[in-house]
Amino acid sequence: MALLAVGASPSSLVDLTPDPSALTWGKQDISSADAGRTQDPNNTMQKMRTSCKRKLQLTWTLPDATQASRILQAFAPEYFYVRYFDVMDGKVEVREFYAGDMSAPFKWYELPGRGTRLATVSFDIIER
Q: What pLDDT score was predicted for residue 56?
């Protein structure tokens, strides 16, 4: 089983290969518009969390052009489902995400016996 599977619905997930060379798990707290510091002697923070969302930072190192295209196309829809291992919950989960800005530094490397490669493909996906 691949580290990530991506699809338009939970029932249409497809394993994404190759696996990312780096995956950083994160949790983002979403705070109320009324959140902020209280004007008291301690400047107490009133976080007023309304929800928690997952954020995954993904990086692929030295993908070939076909792999880079496949990776970017898998995350191109506005919203998509991803199967991944959630560190906080300690199990494999499926959640709906959207992608942040994507980048693929365009340095071509000619590797003996491995063909031409891009430096990296990297972007964040954030839970919807």
A: 98
pLDDT of amino acid 34: 81
- DSSP structure class, residue 28: E
Residue burial 104-122, b: 16+ Cβ < 10 Å; e: rest: beeeeeeeeeeeebbebbb
- Give the residues of the chain that fall short of pLDDT 50: none
75 vs 20: CA distance, rounded Å: 13
Six token digits for residue 14: 């497809």
Torsion angle, CA of 16/14/96/126, rounded to 10 degrees?
10
User: What pLDDT, in 10s, does the model give residues 27-50?
Assistant: 998 888 888 788 888 888 887 888
Check residue 63 and report its DSSP letter: -
Are 128 and 98 in contact, with CB atoms under 8 Å apart?
yes
